């Protein structure tokens, strides 16, 4: 009996020493959870209630926009933009002040409204891609001084009608993508004075025939994509006066083959995209 007791005691000592091995993941509690004091970051506790917040009350983590340094020149802006690792950044290194010409931040979900303050000094900027970023209407106010901007991509952002009036301050804007945004007919009404627009993408927005009518006086318009919307043949009628129109996308809209044919009669050079096949006439018995 005494020998058996000594053996059990020795086994216990071995097990305890193994659990306390330096650099290990630490012992587990009765629920199988890894000890939050573990030195392994992959298994460290992420429970907010276990974090020392320096006080009581709500311990939940609230997201805040990152602080962005103020810049006083395009050279400084380029330095900060490079830190964001853009997909593409074009700077004219030979021109005075090294103006920024193209900024592509597409697909970077960490980009928010505060980051757009870096662009305020970029008055030579011609192209800006913000697709798939987290900018909102508030951020568009930072673009109002970009007097040279010609192309702006806001695809799949959180933009709504409220932000579009900021774009009316861009006198050279010719191409605008609003695909997959919350824009409605009201937003298009705000843009109707931008007669310099030549290409407008509205795929999967919330526009209807009434909104499309706001584009009827855009005399330089060459291409419109209103696919995936509630636009129907009635909406196409309002475009018949756009003799400069060269392309129109209507994939998954309410447009019929007959409606598309009527528009092509009015504008022979327009190329229709996504027109559904004409319904076959039922055979009379």
- The number of helical elements comes to 7
Relative helix content = 10-25%
Morphology: elongated
CATH superfamily of the largest domain: Ribonuclease Inhibitor
CATH second-level architecture of the largest domain? Alpha-Beta Horseshoe
Strands in their spatial order, largest beta sheet = 1-2-3-4-5-6-7-8-9
Break the fold down into its secondary structure elements and pairings.
Elements: H1 2-19, H2 74-83, E1 88-91, E2 100-104, E3 127-129, H3 137-140, E4 151-153, E5 175-177, H4 185-191, E6 199-201, H5 209-212, E7 223-225, H6 233-237, E8 247-249, H7 257-266, E9 271-273
Parallel strand pairs: 2-3, 3-4, 4-5, 5-6, 6-7, 7-8, 8-9
Antiparallel strand pairs: 1-2
Describe this structure in words.
The chain has 285 residues and is an alpha/beta fold. It has 2 domains: 69-173, Alpha-Beta Horseshoe (Leucine-rich repeat, LRR (right-handed beta-alpha superhelix)), CATH 3.80.10.10; 178-278, Ribonuclease Inhibitor (Leucine-rich repeat, LRR (right-handed beta-alpha superhelix), Alpha-Beta Horseshoe), CATH 3.80.10. 20% of the residues lie in helices and 11% in strands. The chain has 7 helices and 9 strands. It has helices at residues 2-19, 74-83, 137-140, 185-191, 209-212, 233-237, 257-266; strands at 88-91, 100-104, 127-129, 151-153, 175-177, 199-201, 223-225, 247-249, 271-273. The protein has a 9-stranded mixed beta sheet with strand order 1-2-3-4-5-6-7-8-9, with helices on one face. The chain starts with a helix and ends in a 12-residue tail after the last strand.
């Amino acid at each position: 009996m005494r020998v058996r007791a000594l053996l059990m005691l020795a086994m216990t000592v071995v097990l305890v020493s193994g659990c306390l091995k330096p650099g290990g993941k630490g012992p587990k509690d009765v629920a199988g959870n890894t000890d939050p004091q573990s030195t392994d970051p992959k298994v460290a506790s992420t429970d907010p209630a276990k974090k020392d917040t320096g006080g009581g009350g709500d311990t939940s983590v609230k997201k805040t926009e990152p602080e962005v340094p103020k810049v006083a020149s395009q050279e400084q802006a380029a330095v900060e933009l490079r830190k964001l690792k853009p997909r593409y950044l074009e700077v004219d290194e030979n021109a005075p002040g090294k103006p920024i010409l193209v900024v592509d931040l597409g697909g970077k979900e960490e980009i928010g409204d505060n980051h757009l303050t870096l662009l305020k000094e970029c008055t030579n900027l011609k192209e800006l891609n913000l697709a798939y970023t987290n900018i909102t209407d508030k951020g568009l106010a930072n673009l109002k001084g970009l007097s040279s901007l010609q192309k702006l991509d806001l695809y799949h952002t959180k933009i709504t009608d409220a932000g579009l009036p900021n774009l009316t301050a861009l006198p050279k804007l010719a191409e605008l993508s609003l695909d997959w945004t919350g824009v409605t007919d009201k937003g298009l009404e705000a843009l109707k004075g931008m007669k310099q627009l030549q290409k407008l993408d509205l795929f999967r927005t919330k526009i209807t025939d009434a909104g499309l009518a706001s584009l009827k006086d855009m005399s330089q318009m060459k291409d419109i994509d209103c696919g995936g919307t509630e636009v129907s043949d009635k909406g196409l009628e309002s475009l018949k006066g756009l003799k400069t129109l060269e392309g129109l996308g209507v994939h998954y809209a309410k447009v019929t083959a007959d409606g598309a044919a009527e528009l092509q009669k009015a504008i022979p050079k327009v190329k229709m995209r996504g027109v559904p096949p004409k319904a076959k006439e039922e055979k009379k018995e």
